[in-house]
Amino acid sequence: MNVLLVEDERKIADFVCAGFREQGFSVDRCSDGTEGFERASNRSYDVIVLDIMLPGRDGLSILKGLRKAGNITPVILLTARNQLEDRIEGLSLGADDYLAKPFFVEELIARVRALLRRVSGEHQNVLAVGDLRLDLISRGITCHGQFVELTAREFNLLEYLMRCPGHVLTRTQILEHVWGYDFDPSTNVVDVCVQRIRKKIVSIGVAADAESPIESVRGVGYRMRKLP
User: For the segment 41-80, what is each residue's pLDDT rounded down to a tens digit?
Assistant: First the structure.
């Protein structure tokens, strides 16, 4: 999942980014409101975490501009001014949730996950491709009662593939979605992570390695295919 964090307090931004990345999120951060609006307008994110008090363009102005332009990316507001007027104004402008400072990063992450489930209309907790099941609660893969836990990065990569079955995803797309925009595109981390996931899939008897539901597309990337 890709998160845009617009926060000018460095200590807060550092611990929020660290918390998200520990959970496998990809985080794009900036400290200026004008730059934040440009990134939110020109790049695709799953959620935007937006401070209200910012240098340059303030958070409420960013939110108003995005919604006016038809951008419906979910937004969680951060504010040190935990007053009723601020909350009402933010929600009226189209914010999906808010969190007052100081806060625990674990709560922010939990709110982001809940928000993404809600706005996507997702009522099920399992993604399925053939006999393979990806459990969004336990964050592991199962088949015929056998369970294997995934690392945060493995989970996010497999979820990305399973939500786009039949579509070829380039290594660059996967890097941007799972690792972040600032990651070296020449690295082989995608291939290494896919190999680890394939081994785990084989270990629970979903398919032989040569028949893995994760199909390599030479020179391009990977796609998820259904097993017969």
Answer: 998 898 999 999 999 999 999 999 999 998 989 999 998 7
Same structural domain for residues 182 and 98? Answer: no
Provide the number of structural domains found in the chain.
Answer: 2
Range of the domain at 209: 126-224
Residue-level pLDDT at 123: 47
Q: Is 110 helix (H, G, I), strand (E, B) or coil?
A: helix
Q: Do strands 126-129 and 132-135 pair parallel, antiparallel, or not at all (unpaired)?
A: antiparallel
Of 119, 143, 166, the last residue of a domain is 119
Task: Indicate whether 109 and 70 sit together in one domain.
Answer: yes
Task: Verify that 91 and 163 share a domain, yes or no.
Answer: no
pTM, 2 dp: 0.59
Q: What's the pLDDT band for 29 if we cut at 50, 70, 90?
A: very high
Contact 198, 212 (CB under 8 A): yes
User: Are residues 114 and 135 both part of a single domain?
Assistant: no
Q: 157 in helix, strand or coil?
A: helix
Task: Please check whether residue 109 is in contact with residue 83, taking contact to mean a CB–CB distance below 8 angstroms.
Answer: no
Q: How far apart are CA 201 and CA 39, in angstroms?
A: 37
Tokens 């504010």 sit on residue: 79
Residues ≥6 apart with Cβ < 8 Å to 208: 202
The answer for residues whose C-beta is within 8 angstroms of residue 110's C-beta and 6 or more apart is: none
Within the chain, residue ranges assigned H as helices are: 10-22, 33-42, 59-68, 84-92, 105-119, 152-162, 171-174, 189-203
Question: Residue 187: which residues within 8 A CB-CB, separation 6 or more?
Answer: 175
| Average confidence (pLDDT) over 108-123 | 77
Q: Are 34 and 8 in contact (CB under 8 A)?
A: no
